[in-house]
UniProtKB/TrEMBL annotation:
<protein>
    <submittedName>
        <fullName>Putative transcriptional regulator</fullName>
    </submittedName>
</protein>
<dbReference type="InterPro" id="IPR009057">
    <property type="entry name" value="Homeodomain-like_sf"/>
</dbReference>
Amino acid sequence: MQREALLDHVLIQLEQYGLAATLPELLQDSGINKSQLHPFWPDRDALIFDCLRHHGQQIDIWQRQVMLDEKLTIEQKLLARYDQLAMRLEKNRFPGCLFVAACSAYPDEHSQIHQLSQRQKQSSFDYSKTLLRELDIEDSELVAKQMELILEGCLSRLMVNHHADDIITAKLLAEDILKIAQCRKNGALS
């Protein structure tokens, strides 16, 4: 099994079992045993770190693709992650949830996994803020924080109950925040 395929496999296992998964659970059905893993990943945390880094790269690529998609409006780009979450949930996948969970599972701010998760959360915030600035939203930083709070809440709930309704509710809340910000920009709330 190639490195990327193994990381994808472990990512799926992490999404199913959570960050408390044991090494045997992570390697289940991979055809790889612990001794084969050791030269590349000396311990479970090294494997989880590399897996999360790989997942972060996947999310970053997706964000860049959405940013460059000229068929989408800026508003659609801001809300596209909810459509992506809904599509992934149908496949029993939970992109982004692991980064929220990792900050709790690895609370030491000096932990590489915690730092990586914080960077990924910052990347998500920057994505929102950049698009809001393109819309010329007043106080785009505050609005981006509000939108990220909704997204993190949605991801947290998905980790627990896996309900598509949570994605729909979060998307509606994000749309409302965006509409209020646009109304404020256009003087409707002055």
